[in-house]
Specification:
- With 178 residues, this protein is an alpha+beta fold.
- 15% of the residues lie in helices and 39% in strands.
- The chain is globular, with a radius of gyration of 19 Å.
- Keywords: Transcription, Transcription antitermination, Transcription regulation, Transcription termination.
- Participates in transcription elongation, termination and antitermination.
């Protein structure tokens, strides 16, 4: 069986949720649940100031784009490409390029590590401890543990990204206690 990957689909601006709903309806109608696994419009919490009052709202992280976790084949490509509001897949020419694990991590999308799925790592740190990232995209970053998920073997720390505190999930094996 082919492996599912995350792909980025370009849409008309403002049509992201409509495209998501249309693709989900097509999945249901054509029984493609095993080939198109998930459709997402990545959102982020933003604090806006309106009339002197702070208001927390959700905004699209990437206006004009939708993320799709799917097994790429002729059927799934055709269904997504011909959905109303979709202008195409992101990639050179007409060849869709899947997102890498490093590109998905800041979006909060976790990839199963199929080889090490049953390995549990014993750690000597807890929430509130300061840690340093020792490998991966965030190598060298120092942060305070905001939360820990023992079943997924990940910690969440806040990192400064574009002048904003952003939560990042990092595997136990990629960090050490300071």
């Amino acid at each position: 069986m082919a492996e599912a990957n995350w792909y980025v689909v370009h849409t008309y601006s403002g049509y992201e949720n409509k495209v998501k709903a249309n693709i989900e309806k097509t999945i249901e109608n054509r029984h493609l649940e095993n080939e198109i696994l998930e459709v997402r419009v990545p959102m982020q919490d933003v604090v806006e100031m309106k009339n002197g009052a702070k208001k927390q709202v959700q905004k699209k992280m990437f206006p004009g784009y939708v993320l799709i976790n799917m097994i790429m084949n002729e059927d799934t490509w055709y269904v997504v490409r011909n959905t109303r509001g979709v202008t195409g897949f992101v990639g050179p020419g007409s060849k869709p390029v899947p997102l890498t694990e490093a590109e998905m991590r800041p979006l909060g999308i976790e990839v199963e590590d199929r080889e090490n799925a049953e390995v549990n790592i014993v750690v000597d740190f807890q929430e509130g401890d300061t840690i340093q990232v020792i490998s991966g995209a965030w190598e060298g970053t120092v942060g305070v543990i905001q939360s820990m998920n023992y079943s997924k073997q990940i910690v969440t720390i806040n990192v400064d990204m574009f002048g904003r505190e952003t939560p990042v999930k990092i595997g136990f094996a990629e960090v050490k206690k300071l």
